[in-house]
């Protein structure tokens, strides 16, 4: 290349190349060499020759021809003739080609076994021939494709290193790159990497270490990928040299070299350089013989440093798969660990001085701040992960080795990449779809905000409208006529301009405004950020960054997730809801930047928000809350910690429902260990105004995202005393609770009987979860009811029929002795843990509907008032705040102080013994019950459950008796039949022998054979009662 540049002045050429360096540790630095697009190396390609080495073994079949056709398309990419070598038992040089058609038309020899060493050796002979002519100016690219391991001739493990050593000795200026294609797991990935390690002198960093097809059917797809990669190579080979006490690190564990050759097409190349201590600032570099100044960076750039280490990591993977000695592999890992640790220390030092601010920043600043804070540690962690993977790698399977080399070896990475490809564009595809929807919703917002503001102004009392008009006139933002027109409700361009201006701020001053304690944005300001969503497309590269760009106000919640939440969103719980607002954009920015945020009330750091439709801006907030970004993506993050696990609106309903239950709790939200009697007698304290506002807003939002008809259907189940199981469409009791709170309920919905049914269902769901977790329901119930095996009915003797179940149950003991000892199952605490949270929530629902009935208009009127402003429904807040009639658990259960222990025992026993939907429903609707379950406050119900517990022991004994009968019944029947006369024997056979049990059937038949044989009187009596097929098979001809 130096010769081709001779016509250019040296100073001009040097200006077209730049170099930067950044110190990694005291004697190691990263180097970034950039070539300007006008540099001759970018304009004048190096002469290139392809050398295709193709497997022609019998296992390849027609795929050899397919690969030949794909390789032929690459011939035009080379400037020199390209060779084709095929190998089976031996290698054959097919020819040198300059056109795709000539290579494609070439005939191939017969197929055989797999001699890879011979194939490589023959191809290298063509390389040597061309080198003899061109003298080190050609870039040779050797491409090996094979679908199986070497099985004939000298083994590559010894042959390839010898070939590589001979090449380096004979052709020191050789420029050779190696590309490996493996087809099926039968191919030898480690041999391919040994080939690269032994022969390659010019690595092609832009290509994969291996192109692997998991099956022959996918070979064409992989070859297309390879063709695209090779066709995209641009520029020429460039030689970089260092002088003085410095050298390029080209391979871990090897001595640094002062000269490297690289492909200039990317315009930028990274290297790791070892220097003498403190000499990194004085690096002397030349590109193709011309000196290039190397400028040291004063500020550490982690992306720069990690980019320089990536090629070394890639070569370390190749060496690992190629079978590098364990000692050398360990040394390579130790060297990388030293550099990665140095990078981590520098990142920590930089992050300590960085500031992080959420208040008063724009969406663009928020995303930029996140990128700045995470960029420091992301690259260092990525290097650390790669290093850990490299150190732990111990695999001999070709497919897994290929995945390790290409970065797809993590448990789900390959599947994720495949899904992304199927979705068309993967992450970028989903991001573009989100941005498109965000822009569509953002375009609707200005008009929606105007409608919301007009509606709020029109609902204001006359005195408030007059004050608003005075504020607008005093601020100078409008004339008196425009302000008056707006307050009169007139619609015109001038009033629209006012609404887009300062009206929102004046209204917030007049009515009072809530704000996020993170961004300090009011609801209106947060919604206004959506006007800038057009910038998100080029600023955000992931769904998380889009969630940081815009969002909504919400209430901090503590979510307890389970693995089952992805399938059933009600499987999670909301432990607490804070009444201080935050915003999703700031929260996601902080969390993704690893900043911990604590709510003003104190407690655990917040991680999730409950996003609600805001009655202050009903139309605008509904548009935002129903955007794909918040409805699907953010909901999926809250429930599943994944961007793409949204399964439907039920997820949002579950969040609202669980949040309502949590928000209704007093400061001490769960049973605090008080004695059971005292805990059941304590009524929850009155609600604070902040809690009332929160509860009302949850109900309001639920009405906006949930069909009112579905809520009414759920409430009718309570009113009609219907079953409340999963099979009846009640996914979880909290869903029913939300429907009761947010719908206009019937008169009997909150009567004692349906409320008790709801609490029993809560216990049944908890018991069902316990059983799925491995609890033995019947054993647990028998234990705390004091039921012993001795008190259960016994079986009749073996061979005697058992009486009817109902007869045994009628005579069964119904006594119980509640075990409340320290070692026993604490059924009272178990029930309290399940139902105590529902007591304040049910009280809120009851008082809310009492208030709505008194003020008339129901929820429809309350909705309008909440949208008008706090002044319009302050009577509701005052009523709920002043209420002192809270019910205790004892009152909700409808029991007495003396009966409490028995009632709790009944609830626990009934929940465990009838824990699933079928066992709790009547037969007429598809269940197992002949009659409804008993009232848990009735003493006879617990006695019946005690009988059921003992009958469970009895049924177990019957089963054991039947198993014993299966073992011994045949012999007992045979013995009885042998001594019986013909009449008695006939009675034993009954009218049809195939109606007998298996032991009786074969016992009678064997007795007949023993007494007279197949033609005896007993055999004839047996056969006369048997079916035709049995007679034909077992009766001998007379």
Task: Give the helices and strands, then pairings.
Elements: H1 10-15, E1 17-25, E2 28-35, H2 40-43, E3 48-55, H3 63-72, E4 82-87, E5 91-97, H4 100-105, H5 116-134, E6 139-146, H6 156-170, E7 175-183, H7 189-199, E8 211-213, H8 219-231, E9 237-243, E10 246-248, E11 259-263, E12 268-275, E13 284-287, E14 290-292, E15 294-296, H9 302-321, H10 326-352, H11 363-392, H12 398-406, H13 413-422, H14 426-459, H15 462-475, H16 480-487, H17 493-500, H18 503-511, H19 523-528, H20 536-539, H21 543-549, E16 553-560, E17 573-577, E18 582-583, H22 584-592, E19 608-611, H23 618-625, H24 628-640, H25 650-663, H26 676-681, H27 689-705, H28 708-719, H29 733-742, H30 752-772, H31 777-784, H32 805-811, H33 827-835, H34 838-855, H35 858-868, H36 874-882, H37 889-893, H38 900-913, H39 917-920, H40 939-979, H41 982-989, H42 998-1010, H43 1017-1023, H44 1028-1034
Parallel strand pairs: 1-15, 3-4, 3-6, 6-7, 7-8
Antiparallel strand pairs: 1-2, 2-12, 4-5, 9-11, 9-13, 10-12, 13-14, 16-17, 16-18, 16-19
Protein name: VWFA domain-containing protein
InterPro entries: VWF_A, vWFA_dom_sf
Domain VWFA: 49-226
What does this structure look like?
- There is one protein chain.
- The chain has about 1050 residues and is of the alpha/beta class.
- Helices cover about 50% and strands about 10% of the residues.
- Among the domains are: about 45-235, von Willebrand factor, type A domain (Rossmann fold); about 435-705, no CATH class; about 760-950, no CATH class; about 980-1035, no CATH class.
- The radius of gyration is 41 Å and the shape is flat.
- The N and C termini lie far apart (about 110 Å).
- It comes from Symbiodinium natans.
- This is VWFA domain-containing protein.
- It holds the Pfam family VWA.
- InterPro entries: VWF_A, vWFA_dom_sf.
């Amino acid at each position: 290349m130096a010769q081709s540049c001779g016509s250019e002045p040296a100073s001009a050429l040097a200006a077209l190349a730049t170099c930067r360096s950044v110190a990694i540790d005291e004697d190691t630095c990263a180097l970034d060499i950039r070539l300007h697009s006008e540099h001759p190396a970018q304009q004048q390609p190096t002469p290139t020759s392809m050398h295709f080495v193709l497997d022609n073994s019998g296992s390849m079949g027609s795929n050899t021809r397919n690969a030949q056709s794909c390789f032929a398309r690459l011939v035009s990419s080379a400037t020199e003739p390209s060779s084709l070598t095929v190998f089976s038992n031996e290698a054959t040089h097919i020819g040198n080609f300059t056109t795709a058609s000539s290579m494609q038309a070439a005939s191939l020899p017969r197929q055989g076994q797999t001699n890879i060493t011979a194939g490589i050796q023959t191809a290298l002979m063509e390389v040597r021939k061309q080198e003899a002519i061109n003298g080190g100016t050609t870039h040779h690219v050797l491409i090996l494709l094979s679908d199986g391991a070497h099985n004939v001739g000298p083994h590559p493990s010894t042959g390839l290193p010898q070939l590589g050593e001979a090449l380096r000795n004979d052709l020191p200026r050789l420029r050779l790159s190696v590309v490996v294609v493996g087809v099926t797991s039968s191919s030898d990935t480690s041999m391919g990497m040994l080939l690269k390690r032994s022969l390659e002198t010019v690595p092609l960093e832009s290509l994969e270490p291996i192109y692997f097809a998991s099956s022959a059917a996918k070979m064409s797809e992989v070859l297309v990928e390879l063709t695209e990669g090779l066709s995209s190579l641009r520029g020429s080979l460039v030689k970089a040299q260092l002088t003085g006490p410095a050298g390029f690190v080209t391979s871990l564990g090897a001595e640094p070299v002062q000269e490297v050759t690289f492909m200039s097409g990317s315009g930028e190349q990274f290297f790791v350089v070892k220097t003498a201590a403190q000499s990194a600032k004085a690096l002397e570099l030349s590109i193709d013989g011309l000196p290039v100044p190397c400028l040291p960076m004063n500020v550490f750039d982690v992306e720069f440093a990690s980019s320089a280490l990536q090629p070394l990591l890639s070569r370390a993977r190749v060496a690992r798969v190629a079978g590098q000695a364990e000692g050398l592999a360990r040394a390579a890992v130790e060297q990388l660990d030293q550099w990665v640790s140095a990078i981590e220390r520098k990142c920590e030092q930089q992050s300590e001085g960085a500031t992080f601010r959420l208040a008063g920043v724009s969406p663009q600043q928020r995303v930029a701040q996140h990128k700045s804070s995470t960029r420091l540690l992301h690259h260092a962690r990525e290097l650390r992960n790669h290093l850990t993977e490299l150190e732990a790698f111990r695999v001999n399977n070709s497919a897994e080795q290929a995945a390790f080399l290409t970065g797809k070896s993590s448990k789900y990475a390959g599947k994720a990449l495949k899904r992304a490809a199927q979705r068309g564009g993967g992450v970028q595809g989903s991001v573009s779809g989100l941005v498109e929807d965000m822009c569509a919703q953002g375009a609707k917002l200005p008009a929606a905000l105007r409608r919301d503001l007009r509606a709020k102004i029109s609902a204001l009392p006359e005195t408030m409208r007059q004050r608003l008009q005075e504020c607008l006139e005093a601020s100078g933002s409008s004339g008196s006529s425009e302000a008056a027109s707006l307050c009169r409700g007139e619609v015109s361009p001038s009033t629209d301009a006012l609404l887009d201006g300062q009206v929102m701020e004046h209204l917030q001053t007049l009515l009072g405004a809530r704000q996020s304690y993170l961004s300090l944005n009011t609801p209106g300001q947060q919604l206004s950020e959506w006007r800038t969503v057009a910038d998100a497309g080029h600023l955000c590269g992931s769904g998380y960054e889009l969630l940081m760009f815009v969002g909504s106000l919400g209430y901090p919640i503590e979510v307890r997730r389970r693995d089952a939440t992805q399938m059933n969103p009600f499987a999670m719980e909301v432990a607490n809801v804070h009444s201080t607002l935050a915003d999703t954009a700031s929260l996601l920015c902080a969390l993704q930047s690893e900043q911990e945020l604590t709510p003003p009330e104190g407690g655990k750091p917040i991680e999730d928000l409950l996003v609600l439709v805001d009655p202050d801006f009903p139309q605008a907030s509904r548009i935002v809350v129903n955007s794909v970004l918040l409805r699907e993506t953010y909901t999926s993050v809250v429930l599943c910690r994944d961007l793409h696990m949204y399964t439907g609106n039920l997820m949002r309903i579950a969040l609202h429902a669980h949040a309502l239950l949590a928000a209704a709790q007093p400061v001490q939200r769960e049973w605090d260990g008080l004695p059971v009697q005292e805990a059941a007698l304590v009524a929850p304290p009155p609600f604070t105004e902040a809690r009332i506002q929160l509860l009302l807003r949850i109900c309001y939002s639920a009405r906006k995202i949930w069909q009112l008809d579905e809520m009414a259907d759920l409430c009718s189940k309570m009113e009609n005393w219907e079953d409340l199981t999963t099979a009846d469409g009640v996914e979880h009791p909290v869903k029913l609770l939300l429907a009761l709170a947010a719908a206009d309920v019937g008169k009997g919905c909150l009567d004692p009987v349906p409320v008790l049914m709801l609490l029993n269902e809560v216990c049944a769901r908890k018991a069902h979860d316990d059983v799925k977790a491995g609890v033995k329901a019947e054993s647990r119930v028998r234990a705390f009811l004091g039921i012993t095996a001795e008190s259960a009915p016994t079986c009749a003797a073996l061979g005697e029929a058992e009486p009817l179940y109902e007869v045994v149950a009628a005579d069964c003991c119904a006594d119980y002795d509640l075990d409340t000892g320290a070692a026993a199952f604490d059924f009272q605490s178990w029930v309290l843990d399940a139902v105590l949270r529902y007591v304040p929530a049910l009280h809120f629902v009851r008082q809310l509907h009492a208030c709505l009935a008194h003020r008339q208009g129901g929820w429809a009127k309350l909705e309008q008032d909440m949208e008008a402003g706090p002044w319009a429904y302050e009577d509701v807040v005052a009523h709920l705040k002043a209420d002192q009639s809270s019910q205790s658990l004892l009152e909700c259960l409808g029991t007495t102080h003396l009966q409490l222990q028995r009632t709790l025992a009944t609830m626990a026993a009934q929940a465990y013994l009838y824990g699933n939907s079928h066992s709790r429903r009547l037969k007429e609707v598809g269940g197992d019950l002949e009659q409804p379950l008993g009232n848990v406050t009735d003493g006879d119900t617990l006695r019946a459950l005690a009988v059921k517990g003992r009958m469970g022991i009895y049924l177990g004994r019957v089963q054991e008796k039947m198993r014993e009968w299966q073992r011994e019944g045949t012999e007992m029947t045979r013995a009885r039949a042998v001594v019986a006369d013909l009449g008695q024997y006939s009675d034993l056979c009954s009218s049809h022998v195939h109606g007998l049990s298996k032991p009786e059937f074969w016992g009678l038949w064997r007795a007949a054979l023993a007494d007279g044989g197949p033609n005896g009187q007993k055999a004839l009596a047996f056969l006369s009662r048997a079916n035709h097929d049995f007679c034909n098979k077992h009766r001998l001809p007379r």
